[in-house]
Design brief:
It is a single chain. Strand 2, helix 3 and strand 3 form a beta-alpha-beta unit. By secondary structure, the protein is mainly α. The strands form 2 sheets. It has a 3-stranded parallel β-sheet, with helices on both faces. A two-stranded parallel ribbon has the order 4-5. The C terminus is likely disordered. It folds into 2 domains: 102 residues, 3-Layer(aba) Sandwich (Rossmann fold), CATH 3.40.50.300; 79 residues, Helicase, Ruva Protein, domain 3 (Orthogonal Bundle). Helix 2 runs parallel beside helix 3.
């Protein structure tokens, strides 16, 4: 998700200054007054301004007051402001969901299938001159988990560990991040070889 968010931010600014025109709000920085102010602010020496609201649980009915305040600002958001809302869950019955869908674009990112994750691992390794078999990639994913962020993190560790033009097998996989390889996964790998 981080990669998509960063690519989208770059596409909005297209080489323009984003330092003064990008505000990100998350669980550590969620002051509703600052969010409202940011949504009203016009761009500074750029064509666009962007506000990213990350995992603030805005679509939850428990946060009705916060949701209504954000909705009021989104109804009158300047054309020069792009607001990106990232949430784990979005109640499709909520007024905020309906407003976002009506005024903007809504993308639902589902988890990748095992086949897509295997292709992702192979593609990322190939960018660095590394190869991995489908069997080893599948076991890597089974061990790390099916969340793309965790897989990407472990793939980058593996890339740092490996030399160029090598084939990734179970031995370097186990050595690159020994903490993630539980005794159970080691045994299953040994038994399945």
């Amino acid at each position: 998700m981080d990669a998509y968010t960063n690519r989208y931010i770059e596409s909005v600014f297209e080489g323009q200054d984003k330092m003064m025109n990008l505000d990100r709000f998350n669980q550590d920085n969620k002051d509703i007054d600052r969010i409202e102010s940011s949504l009203e602010t016009l761009p500074f020496f750029a064509d666009k301004r962007m506000v990213v609201l990350e995992y603030l649980d805005l679509f939850n009915s428990k946060n009705k007051a916060k949701m209504e305040r954000i909705m009021e600002k989104l109804k009158n958001i300047p054309e020069t402001t792009v607001c990106m809302i990232l949430e784990d869950k979005a109640d499709k019955r909520s007024k905020l969901y309906k407003l976002v869908k009506d005024k903007g674009t809504f993308h639902d990112f589902t988890y990748l299938s095992e086949k897509e994750l295997i292709q992702y691992v192979a593609r990322e390794l190939k960018k660095h001159g590394l190869k991995i078999s489908s069997y080893d990639a599948r076991h890597f994913i089974d061990t790390v988990g099916y969340e793309l962020r965790a897989i990407a993190k472990e793939v980058h560790k593996l890339i740092d560990y490996m030399g160029a033009d090598e084939i990734v097998t179970k031995k370097p996989l186990m050595r690159s991040a020994p903490g993630i390889w539980s005794q159970r996964s080691l045994n299953s790998w040994i038994l399945s070889v």
